[in-house]
Write a structure and sequence with these properties.
By secondary structure, the protein is mainly α. It is 79% helix and 0% strand. Helix 1 packs antiparallel against helix 2 and helix 3 runs antiparallel to helix 4.
């Protein structure tokens, strides 16, 4: 399998994973379990999601870099692409949202820190949302990329 194949497949898988955690798994936990248990389960799922996002983000950043270098060598663009910026943004949101905010949320639960748990939760959700938007943008770009049979989105003829 080629670099291009993985560069086009992984964003969709990553987006599906993020949507599954946000729209299915976490709400189901809070619907079925007592709040404390649901919170622990959600925390565990989000930790697994963060480590997966780190791996996929780094891998996609490398794949986007390879594609940008090939395009630049062919005279069709810069060595720094939009895909690289989107992958880097998703990585930043993962690191800031999970590895930066989550420890502060633990401290807020015990009454420490400047911000309360609810405020930090809102910040964490915002980082997750921006990450999801970046990954969805990567997915759309992968689906619309020219030169790949079956990958281009069909457009109606213009009149």
């Amino acid at each position: 399998m080629t670099v291009e194949f993985w560069r086009r497949l992984l964003p969709g898988l990553w987006a599906g994973w993020l949507l599954c955690v946000a729209l299915l798994a976490t709400p189901a936990a809070f619907a079925l379990l007592p709040q404390a248990e649901a919170g622990r389960l959600a925390s565990r799922m989000l930790a697994q999601e963060a480590w997966t996002s780190l791996a996929l983000g780094v891998l996609l950043l490398v794949l986007e870099r390879v594609a940008a270098r090939r395009a630049a060598a062919a005279g069709a663009g810069s060595q720094f692409s939009t895909g690289m910026m989107l992958a880097a943004a998703a990585l930043f949101c993962t690191v800031a949202g999970h590895f930066g905010v989550q420890p502060l949320m633990q401290a807020a639960r015990s009454g420490q820190g400047v911000l309360g748990f609810g405020q930090l939760h809102a910040v964490s959700v915002a980082f997750y949302g921006v990450k999801l938007l970046a990954v969805l943008a990567l997915t759309v770009r992968a689906a619309r990329a020219p030169g790949v049979p079956g990958a281009a989105v069909s457009r109606p003829p213009s009149s």
